[in-house]
Amino acid sequence: MIDFGSFLIFCAVSCAAYYYVNREKNKKNFEIANKLPGINGLSLFESFYIILTTPRKEYINKVLSYVRDDVPLTRATFFNQTIILTKDADFINKVFNSPKTYNKPDLFYKGFMTTKGLITLAGSEHKRHRKVLNKAFTSKMMQRLPDIFDDKSKKIIKNLCQVENCGEFELLEFIGPYSLETFGKSNLNYEIQYHKSDIFHAYDKYSSVATDYLPYSMFGLAKNILSPTPLGKRIKDVFNKFNIYFDDVVKVNKENENNNFIENTAIDILLDPVNGFTDEEVKDELIMMLLGAFETSTRIISMVLMMVGMNKDVQHKIVTELNEVYNEDKDAAFSADFLMKFPYLEMVIKETMRLFAVVPMVARETSDEVEICGHVLPKNTTILISIYAMQREKKYWGDDADQFRPERFEDGVKNPHAWAPFTGGSRICIGYRYAMMAMKIFLINFFRTYEVNCKQKFDEIETEMTMTLNFLTGYKVSINRR
User: Fold this and answer.
1) Residue scoring higher pLDDT (359 or 412)
2) pLDDT digits (tens, 9 = 90+) for 251-271
3) Is the separation of the CB atoms in 215 and 51 below 8 Å?
4) DSSP characters for 227-254?
5) How far apart are the C-alpha atoms of 421 and 357, rounded to whole Å?
6) What is the DSSP letter of 348?
7) Which helix (H) or strand (E) holds 362?
């Protein structure tokens, strides 16, 4: 049997050897990086300590504590890796649009535990997947969505009758199934009762599980190694539910491939032999796309309802806008053009997404030496981008940047690049138009039916950073019929 103390010594020596060999190998890159404005690097052991001891609700503040305000980027060294930290809108925009910062670093994205989906793929493979899957989100495909969103939102809103006039309740239990049902109907040719489904609970837990796994992935530990641990069992439970659900989706679609399913839905594209997706690619893409649909729509709709419930003047303006539009045409049908008639509601959504960036941090990696905003970044540099901090930066949003004020979007923003909840460039969220349409239609139907109230105060909201931004204090509101 291997002595545990000897094993620890072996691990320490191996890590140290890797650290110094890697540093010598990348000596040129370190010389370039040292010319960038920054802070002293963290030692190997400091890196370990920070990862393992920082509470999730402190992740954002911990990262931002290293970011300087007088320069557009801050260099740090973390685990022998050069990292650029930034919240500068112009710098971030150039990163999103440079072909040399197209890829995402394994250091942060291994935590998703999928390697063949759009969120984590790199280079030519990402471009191949993106090019083919774009067909599912064209303007033509979007035209068929309003009826689906309308039908599903009315179903969920009807279900809310069980909690009206009954005090506070948890929004996610209702909004989550809406997000899953709309994607299941619109892109998977698959319908079940999602509020009773294991897939709903799997996605509700996934971000938290992935965040807990992230430190282990940074140290190169595969998820299977953790199988005997409580975390390993949580991971296994989530992925077992994923596998059961997606196996059934694929089975149903293959059994009915001769039926008149709509062409170029996501599942149609993924299962078409012409596109050459492997079984692993199909499953990973489905996991990531449904995650995007679930996390974005579910959390933002819930956040919007809380913000409106706290601000009666905002709610009054929304209802006034709805009344004005529907007084002109009480039987109007949803369409992209019709949704343009609700500019104030859109401002409310945008302001909520500004304050609470659902994806608070994203990362890119340089594939070659590149100059951005007058600074030369070496190859293999990780760029950690704080969307959260940028969208609360006072130089872009004014002294009230930390307050909820939808009207700030009325006259345009000082820097259009400072609002990027869906990121930007060629890797912008593939379903951003889908998400905005789904949210608008749900909220229009909701506010035509209910008044929302939220006892919680804005300053009392506590957040934590999992793979997405989460309200630690919950998503509780009460509703009354209009």
Assistant:
1) 359
2) 999 887 666 667 789 999 999
3) yes
4) TTSHHHHHHHHHHHHHHHHHHHHHHHHH
5) 6
6) H
7) strand 361-365
CA distance 351 to 318: 14
CB 381 within 8 Å of CB 82: yes
CA distance 194 to 203: 11
CB proximity list for 318: less than 8 A, separation 6 or greater: 308, 344, 345, 348, 447
73 contacts: CB under 8 Å, gap ≥ 6: 36, 37, 84, 85, 86, 88, 91, 373, 375
Residue pointed to by tokens 């068929």: 144
For residue 364, give the H/E element and its range. Answer: strand 361-365
CATH hierarchy code of domain 35-481? 1.10.630.10
Residue 480 CA to residue 314 CA, distance in Å, equals 17
Tokens for 21? Answer: 């060999």
Q: How confident is the model at residue 1 (pLDDT cuts 50, 70, 90)?
A: very low
Asked if residue 469 lies in contact with residue 359, where contact means CB atoms within 8 angstroms, the answer is yes
- List the structure tokens of 100: 């040399």
Q: Can you tell me the distance from the alpha carbon of 289 to that of 118, in angstroms, rounded to the nearest whole number?
A: 8
Buried-state track 391-401, b at ≥16 Cβ within 10 A, e below 16: bbbeebbeeeb
Burial class for 11, CB neighbours closer than 10 Å (0-12, 13-18, 19+): exposed
Nearest 10 degrees: Cα torsion 5, 10, 12, 15 = -160
Task: Give me 373's structure tokens.
Answer: 């905003």
pLDDT tens figures, 146-173: 999 999 999 999 999 999 989 999 999 9
Contacts of residue 45, defined as CB under 8 A and 6 or more positions apart, other chains included, come to none
pLDDT at 106 over 90: no
Q: Are 88 and 390 in contact (CB under 8 A)?
A: yes
| Residue 480, beta-bridge partner list | 451
* CA separation for the pair 104, 118 (Å, rounded): 10
Burial of 462 (0-12, 13-18, 19+ CB in 10 A): exposed
C-alpha 318/C-alpha 334 separation (Å) is 17
Please determine, for residue 392, whether its predicted confidence score (pLDDT) is greater than 60.
yes
∠ CA 210-66-33, nearest 5°, is 95
Q: What pLDDT, on the 0 to 100 scale, is given for residue 22?
A: 60
State residue 260's pLDDT score: 60
Distance CA 71, CA 67 (A): 9
CB-CB contact of 268 with 262 (8 Å): yes
Residue 374, phi then psi, degrees to nearest 5: 85, 5
The tokens of 470 are what? 């989460």
